[in-house]
C-alpha cells in the first residue's frame, strides 16, 4: 500500500509541475479509394520553419493515427504507404486539437510490380535509447546460434567463464521479444546456444533502460527479437545451413505467417545439431606446487525450438494474443584432460592426473504467454501479460580419474565417480502497464509480481568394487524460492526542443534457499527480504536539425543467478570443482551517460558507472592441492567509457559501419584475497559491405579488443576476429544463397592470468571458431503488401529519435 501512495504523490507532483504549458493532438483515419482502412501507413510531421522532424507514427489496424504533444506552430503532415501516392497537407498555426477526419491515399501512378524496391536495414542502428544489431543484415551471422551472435554485436565481449561484458561491465539481463528471461548462468547459455540465427531478426542492446523494465541487469538489457513476418496474407520461408570448423554442424528453420483483418497466426521452428571442439589450458601455481592442466572437449548437441502464436484483433482498440514456445536440447560433452603435477623445487613431475568427464544432458523448456492490449486514439494504452514457464534438466556425469607415475606406466591412485543432477525451475509472472496523456506529456505506471521455484537434486556416487554406491556425505538437495514485487511510474514530456523523461521503480525481493543433506539434516538455510528504489531519467535537447544532445541516468541491480546460490560441489575432475555461494550479495550499479548525435549518423557517448559489491567467479584453494571455483563479492568497480558509432556511405557500391569503445575499468578490492586492478581497454568493430557485379554482395567485418580485465579477475591479452561473406539472390530474389568465412586468422582464442589468494593461474582457451558456412533461404507466398513496421526507410532512424 505504501508503494501505491508514493506513486500517487509522484503523479500529482508531476502534474502540478508540467500543467502550465499547452500541447495539442492531431488525429485522422487513412483509407484507400474503396474506403478500406490502411493499417501501418507511415505518418510524419515536420516543422515548416526549418523542416525539423517533430513526430512520427503509424496507423493502427483500423487506419487511425494520433500524434500527441504537438506545440503551437506551422507544420507539414505527410502520410505514405507502399504502392499508394503519399498524402501531404500543410497545417497553419496549430492552436487546438485537430481532427482531419478521413485522408484518402490514391493508387501510385506506376504499378508496384514494375518498381524495384530495395529495402535493407543497416547492420547497426544507434537509436536514442538502444543499439540495434540487425541480424538479418549480417552475412557473417549465417548459420550461427544466438550465443555466437553475441560475439558479433558491437560493444559486447564474452569472457572465459561465459560471462557477458557490456561497455566494461558485467551483469546483463536477457529479454526475448520484450519479455525477461528467468534463466541464468549455464541454463541461459544452453538455451541461447539452441537458438539459430535463421529465426532471429535483431538483437537490441539497451544500456539505460527506463523504469518500465525490470531493474535486473546492472550493465543493461539484451533483447532478442524473433522473426515474426507482418506481411498481409499468407507467406513462409525455409532455410538451412552447413558449417564446418574442426567438426561439422547443421541448422535449419521454417517460418510462416497468416494475417488478415481479424487475426494473425504465426510461428517458426528451428533445429541445430553437430559438434563443437574446444580447448582449455590452465597452468596453476598453488602452495609451491604446479599443475599444468590441458583439457580438450568435444561437444555434441541436438536442439529443437518451436514458437507458435495468435493475435486476435477484436476491434480497432482491443487485441488478445497467445504465444507458446518450447525447446529441447540433448547434449553430450566429452572432456579429456592431462595434468602433470610437480613441486616447484623439483625438476621433474611427481605424478600425472589423467581425467575424463563424460557429461550427458537433456533439457526441456516451455513457456506460455497470454496478452491483452487496449489502445485508443486518445493516447490511452493498457497492456496485461500473464506468463508461465517450466524448465527441466537432467545431467549425468561419469568421471574416471587416474594418477600415474611420471612415466605414465603405473597407476598410483584412482577415483571413479558419477554425478546425477536433475533440476526443475518453475516460473510464473503477472504484470500490467498503463499509460495516458497527462499535463501535456505521457504518464505511465504499472506493477509486476513474479515467482520462481527451483528444485535441485545432487546424487554423488563412488565406484567401489565395480558398483556405484551413493555417497551420502556429498549428496544433497537444494530448493530456492524467489518472489519479486515491483511497481513503477514514468513520465515523458516534450516542449519546444526539449524532451524530459523521469521514472522511479520499486522492487521488493523475498527469497528462501535451503540446502538439505542426504541424511535429511538442514545444513544451510538463507532467507532474505529487501526493498530497493531505482530512479531513472533523461533529458534530450534538439539543438538544431542535425545535432541532438542527451543525458541519462539509471540505477540497476544484478541479483546472483540461481546456480550461484546453490552450494552443491560439482566435480570437474579430481583436483577441481565448482560450488555456489548462498551468502552472495546482489551488486548495484549507478549509470550516467552523456551523448551527442550528429546528422542522425555519428553518435558519441561518454558514460560513468559505479558498481557496489561487484561479484565474480574466482578460483580458490581447497587444501594443499585442490581448488574450487565459486562466486564472491570481491570489489567496487568504476568504469568510464567513451563510445563512437558511425555509419558511412563511401561510394554507391560501398557502405561502412564503425563502432569504437574505449574504457577504463578500476576494481578496488573489498575482499582481502583479491588484488585491486586498473585497466584501459579499446574495442573496435567494423563492417564493410560491397555491391559487386552480377548482383553479388560482399561483406568484410571484424572486431578487436586490446588487453582487458574479464569479470574483475582475468587480465587478458588482445584478441579479435576477421570475417568475410558473400551473398547472391536468385528466382526473383526469393532464393538467397550465402557463403561465410569466420575468424579467418584464428585470433579469437584468449590468453590471460588471474590471482586470488595463494592461487595463480595462466590460462588459454578457445573453440573451433574458424569456420566456413553455406546457407540457403527460400521465401514464398504473399511478399508484396508490406506492413509498415516491416519496412526500413530513410526516416526510420530519425523516427526512433523523436518522442511521441
Automatic annotation (TrEMBL):
Domain of life per record: Bacteria
Cell location? Cell outer membrane
The signal sequence is none
Domain Outer membrane protein beta-barrel per the UniProt entry, residue ranges? 376-778
Q: Which organism is it from?
A: Leeuwenhoekiella nanhaiensis
The protein's name is: TonB-dependent receptor
Would the keyword Membrane turn up in this protein's UniProt record? yes
Q: Which UniProt keywords apply?
A: Cell outer membrane, Membrane, Receptor
